[in-house]
Every structure is written in structure tokens, then in C-alpha cells.
Design a protein that fits this description.
With 365 residues, this protein is of the alpha/beta class. 39% of the residues lie in helices and 16% in strands. It is built from 13 helices and 8 strands. It is globular, with a radius of gyration of 20 Å. It starts with 5 loop residues before the first helix and ends in a 10-residue tail after the last helix. Bound molecules: iron/sulfur cluster and zinc ion (ZN).
Length: 365
């Protein structure tokens, strides 16, 4: 593979070309959202450095990711859910938090120890969530144990993290790294930053951890299994090496691997529609988790849309069983869970690993 260069971008290839296509695809969106309502909120449980705990996950509607407005990542449909016009006020963001607290009060026996806040972009980007709002949110959740906030590496700053650690919250920054391989991140995902930027963000968080009293600060890396343009076996190899490289970075205590699902208004959707993309097999998820079980980090995966054509799937017969084994692995980190599941379609998956060579020719549906 040749290295990308600024000249090739100028000639309308590389990122320019990806961004142009993504802008056209996203322009098809026609949904409008209320800035006083969160994009989504749900209750779950999560494996954290303190063990498995109840969690409240909030997707704040902050007006969308700046990168997405330039075109954005090939698999990401979040911008289609963002607010028209680009920014959401302090009051509206706090209204969204209130809606989430009401949801929790109505549906959970007690407040969750873990709060996870994602935005359609970066929580630590002050153009999405201002300093005043960030401090107010930290205050609102000061009685919890741990908070996770999502951010691109550029916006990670020890002083912003101190808003949370100072009120007694252990704080994790979730970074959508997608892969440790720069070439794959740039050309398959269309994400602009480098692994070195992720390492720098981890260093900044390690400093925040050093400054924090009685609580920790750490990084949770989000990886993407099977971005477009990779064959099944290339995707598996890329993930195994990515999990290992992330786990070796100081400060990164958790790796969450998301198998790609086909979201509307994305390049992946266009490829899928034309028969040029198949989401990863659940066997591939299991293979990566098994192969990386010994690394010095918690490794988890939560396949969204498992078993459907647009989500990670096997043959249809075994999907629920394999998904259950993956969820089991998330909690216990024991690769033996995968010894208890098998299916005839494993042979097909092995064949795909051996023979699939081109993104344009998936061998199976
Ligand atoms: S994946 Fe993240 S960075 Fe990429 S377009 Fe979506 S919200 Fe923006
Ligand atoms: Zn099967």
C-alpha cells in the first residue's frame, strides 16, 4: 500500500474525495431534532476497573461533530441525528440531562454508579459543550462513582478533566480511535488524527490521573472491527494488533471493540446497498477477543444489531448464542466462553478468512 501524501489529497483523492462523497450522502438526511431532548438514553451494566457496575448511558444532542460537517467518517450516521444549525445552548443541554435523570428515576431501582456521556462528536470540545455546562454536569453527577466522556484526542486536556476528578468522580475519556493503524484510520474510516495523537491524549490523561486525589483518570479506546475496504481477514488482523497496541499505552485501561454496523446516510451504507460490504462475522469478534485475552487491559465488545443483515452476523442459527458468549466474555474476560459455542457456519467463515481478498467482493451475505 502506498503512503498518503498531501499532494494526493490536493488532486482530489484521499480525504478530499471521501469528504466530498460523505457530504453528498449526509445531505440526504431530513430529520430534525429537539435540542431539549437527548439523542438517546438507556440503562445497562458495564465492566470497569472497579468491576461490573450499573450504568446510565446518555447520548447528548450537541449539534453534531465538526468533522462530520466537513464530510466525516465513512461508517458514522450520528450527524443525521444532530440539531439543525449546529449548536445547543447551556440551558437546553441541562434540560437534556434532566430528561435522562427522569428516565433513570423511573426505570432503575437506584442511581447508577457509572455515567457515560457521548455526544455526536466530542464532549470535551468547548464548541459543543461549553466550560460552564461541563462544570454543571460534573456537579450534577458528583454523587456517582465514575464518569465516561467521549472525545477526540485533540480536545483532551488535564484541566477539563479536573472538573470531574475535583468533585470526586473517577473519569475516563472514551476516544474513538477505531484502529491503531494510521493508514486504515485515514483511508478506510476517513478519520484525520494519528495514533501518535491518541498516545499524546493518553499522556495528558495520565497527568490528570497523577493530579487527581483519591480518584482515577484513564482512557477507554473504541475500535472499529471491519471498516469498509478491508477483507474479513485483514479486519481481524488489524483488530488483533490494534487491541495489543492500545493495551500497551500507559493510561489506556479498557479497549471496546465495536463491530461495524451499517448506518443510514453513510458511505458504508452505499457500499452495502451495492453489494460491496458485509458487516463482520460474530466469529471474527470472538477470534479477536480470544487472541487478545492476555493483554493488560479490559477488552470488551457490544455488537449492535447482531444477527441482522446490517449488523455483525453469522448464519442466523447461531448468532444469539455467539452474542451471549461475547457478553459473557465482557463480564468475565475468560476466553473459555467461546469453547462452548460452535456451528456449522464456522467452516464458511474460515473459508471467507482464507479466500476473501477484495472489499468489492464479499463472498457471503
Ligand atoms: S465517528 Fe465521531 S468523528 Fe467521525 S463523523 Fe462520527 S461523530 Fe464525527
Ligand atoms: Zn452459525
Amino acid at each position: 500500500m502506498s503512503r498518503p501524501s498531501p499532494e494526493s489529497y490536493e488532486r482530489g483523492r484521499g480525504m478530499d474525495a471521501h469528504n466530498q462523497v460523505m457530504r453528498e450522502i449526509r445531505a440526504e438526511k431530513d430529520k430534525h431534532y429537539d435540542p431539549h431532548e437527548p439523542t438517546r438514553v438507556w440503562l445497562d451494566e458495564d465492566n470497569t476497573p472497579d468491576g461490573v457496575v450499573d450504568s446510565l448511558t446518555i447520548i447528548l444532542n450537541t449539534g453534531g461533530c465538526r468533522w462530520a460537517r466537513a464530510g466525516g467518517c465513512t461508517m458514522c450516521g450520528y450527524v443525521a441525528e444532530s440539531v439543525e444549525g449546529g449548536s445547543v445552548t447551556h440551558e437546553a443541554l441541562l434540560d437534556q440531562i434532566d430528561v435522562c435523570l427522569e428516565h433513570e428515576a423511573e426505570n432503575a431501582a437506584e442511581p447508577a454508579d457509572l455515567i457515560k456521556i457521548y455526544t455526536s462528536g466530542s464532549f470535551l470540545d468547548e464548541r459543543e459543550v461549553g466550560a460552564e455546562t461541563r462544570a454543571a454536569i460534573a456537579e450534577t453527577f458528583a454523587d456517582r462513582e465514575r464518569i465516561v466522556v467521549e472525545s477526540l484526542p485533540d480536545f483532551v486536556d488535564r484541566e477539563k478533566l479536573a472538573d470531574f476528578t475535583d468533585v470526586g468522580l473517577s473519569t475516563d475519556v472514551a476516544v474513538g480511535l477505531e484502529t491503531a493503524t494510521d493508514r486504515v484510520r485515514h483511508d478506510c474510516v476517513n478519520k484525520y488524527f494519528d495514533f501518535a495523537d491518541f498516545e499524546a491524549a493518553c499522556e495528558e490523561v495520565a497527568e490528570a490521573d497523577f493530579d487527581a486525589e483519591d480518584v482515577d483518570a484513564g482512557v477507554k479506546a473504541y475500535l472499529l472491527l471491519k471498516p469498509p475496504f478491508l477483507s474479513e481477514s485483514e479486519a481481524v488482523e488489524d483488530m488483533i494488533s490494534s487491541v495489543r497496541r492500545c493495551a500497551a499505552v500507559e493510561g489506556c485501561h479498557t479497549v471496546s471493540m465495536n463491530p461495524t454496523n451499517v448506518q443510514r446516510y453513510t458511505m458504508v451504507d452505499e457500499l452495502f446497498f451495492r453489494g460491496g460490504y458485509r458487516p463482520p462475522w460474530l466469529w471474527s469478534v470472538a477470534r479477536v477477543l480470544e487472541a487478545t485475552a492476555g493483554v493488560d487491559a479490559i477488552v470488551v465488545s457490544d455488537p449492535v444489531g447482531h444477527g441482522s443483515d446490517r449488523g455483525p452476523h453469522n448464519c442466523g442459527e447461531c448468532d444469539d448464542r455467539v452474542q451471549k458468549a461475547i457478553k459473557d466474555f465482557d463480564r468475565r474476560q475468560d476466553p473459555a466462553v467461546f469453547e462452548q459455542v460452535s456451528c456449522e457456519c464456522e467452516a464458511t467463515w474460515e473459508y471467507v478468512l482464507d479466500e476473501e481478498t477484495s472489499y468489492g467482493m464479499p463472498l457471503t451475505r
